[in-house]
Amino acid sequence: MQEVFDSGMKVRREVLSDAHVDRANANKDEFTEEFQDLISKYAWGSIWTRPGLDKRMRSAVTLTAMVAGGYWEELAMHVKAARRNGLSVDEIKEILLQTAIYCSVPAANVAFKVAKDALAEYAAEEE
Fold first, then answer.
1. How many other C-beta atoms are found inside a 10 Å radius of the C-beta of residue 64?
2. Which of 38, 85, 97, 122 fits a disulfide with 55 by CB distance 3.0 to 4.6 angstroms?
């Protein structure tokens, strides 16, 4: 299981950034530690490491899922991750336009605002 965890942490750092993972780890406590380990092992170590989809496609799917679920903080984080994984701003826009049809116009409206702010933060971080 340690190998899965280590693989997950590697991908998690590549996708979300060292700074994000370091913050998450620094905020771990007795109550949240097992949840953080679960995320690293299963979401990142078992799913994101699978060969069936590349990181770009996984990001596209994840953006859609965040909009569908209304997980706005997670959407912001994954918009930045999508850029790290090679999605262009135009591709992110197209994904959000698609969510307007399949998730709802109100959800896409919020998503565009969240994404716009996240893209600005990403651009500032890259300078």
1. 19
2. 85
CA distance 45 to 91: 26
8 A C-beta contact, residue 81 and residue 15: yes
**pLDDT tens per residue across span 24-53:** 999 999 999 999 999 999 999 999 999 999
CB–CB of 41/8 below 8 Å? yes
pTM: 0.93
All structural domains of the chain:
1-50 (no CATH), 53-127 (1.20.1290.10)
Between CA 49 and CA 51 the distance in angstroms is 6
- In the block, tokens 């979401």 appear at 43
